[in-house]
Amino acid sequence: MRYVLWILAMLLVGAGVFATFRQGDTPREVTIYTSVDQVYSEPILRAFEAETGIRVNALYDAEAAKTVGLVNRLIAEKGAPLADVFWNGEFWQTLALQEEGVLAPYASPAAEGLPALFVDPDAFWAAFGGRARVLFVNTDRMAEEDWPRSIFDLPGRADEISFANPLFGSTATHAAALAAALGPDEALGFFEALKSGGARVVDGNAVVRDMVAAGRVPMGLTDTDDACVSIKKGAPVAVVFLDQEEGGLGTLVVPNTVALIAGGPHPEEARLLADYLLSPDTEAKLIESGWVQIPSRPGIAEGKCFGKLTVRGMQPGVAAIRDAGAGISDAMREMFQD
Asked: Does the keyword Signal apply (predicted)?
């Protein structure tokens, strides 16, 4: 009987040790919110999982609300954060989160080599890679000699154009950049002229792309990543980088931004993921996949869609664009809110 009791006791001790081992063996994880299209961001996050063994819980958002929806959620969760990292396909709303106190400073060693303007001086975010705002034209519906070459040509041809709702995503950033470069009155006048002239306002850049590719409209404003999807499919389309002449306004280049969430539940894993996203290898992968067309580091890679690009970008800095966007936000909301 004593022998049986001894065996039972050893089994119970062993079970306790096993339970303790299993409890301490909980897999590491990290939660990321991202506005980057899932088709591009998910392979990067899965590669991080495979390389580190850290499970990634990712929240993606819909095309129409994209960055704004994620930003509102992060602000709402500020008192009890669920996310660790925010990977934004643009920069304007990242600055909004910084102003709201949602972000935590982190000087990632992977940010070495990025342009100075791509790294926040207080280390609340870092930017890499870029897409450009372009005019997307259907070549069956419009001969090359008729393509607009400047954004100032568009209001007079508004009924031929489609663009995404400028309250969201990169179109909102574009509106802010125009306000910074031209002044708020001229930027607001540009969008009012497009709207009153019959331009089609749709739910996102991908919708613009599909409408142009199908010939439902002759041209539209979208981003290079969306344009590349149709180009690769062999659609009768072409891209125009607007205002590229010497001394011209230039086109908006929109970089990705990466930031840590203050009070996030997995700070160590968050730093590792941020380092991974900001690395040259990740940027090269995103160029290869077609998400990034304008590299942030010279000589890193050459994109399949456009090859080696030299693009004249708009000159206002990130802070100036953010300030200008805040200055026109109420007027833009009144103009485009349903």
From this structure: yes
50 and 97, same domain (yes or no): yes
What are 151-166's pLDDT values in tens digits? 999 999 999 999 999 9
Task: List pLDDT tens digits, range 168-193.
Answer: 888 998 999 999 999 999 999 999 99
CA distance 136 to 240: 6
Residue 71 forms part of a structural domain = yes
Give the angle subtended at the CA of 304 by the CAs of 300 and 308, to the nearest 5°. Answer: 55
DSSP result, 61-109: --TTTHHHHHHHHHHHTTTS---SEEEESSSHHHHHHHHTT-EE----G
User: Considering only CA atoms, which of 24, 106, 121 is closest in space to residue 318?
Assistant: 121
Rounded to whole angstroms, the Cα distance separating 126 from 124 reads 7
DSSP readout, 132-189?
Answer: EEEEEEETTTS-GGG---SGGGSGGGGGGEEEE-TTSHHHHHHHHHHHHHH-HHHHHH
Q: What is the rounded average pLDDT of the residues 212-227?
A: 96
How many whole angstroms separate alpha carbon 117 and alpha carbon 127?
Answer: 8
Nearest to 305 by CA among 318, 323, 322, 293: 293
Say whether both 214 and 270 belong to one domain.
Answer: no
Task: State the first-to-last Cα distance of the chain, in angstroms, to the nearest integer.
Answer: 81
Name the one residue in this structure whose structure tokens are 């590491």: 28
Query: Mean of the per-residue pLDDT values for the chain?
Result: 89
Who's near 90: CB < 8 A, 6+ residues apart? Answer: 35, 67, 169, 170, 173, 254, 255, 256, 257
181's CB contacts (< 8 A; 6+ apart) are 249, 314, 315, 316
Q: Are residues 107 and 229 in the same domain?
A: no
| Each residue's pLDDT tens digit, 19-46 | 333 345 678 999 999 999 899 999 999 9
261 and 155 both lie in a single domain = no
CA distance 108 to 123: 8
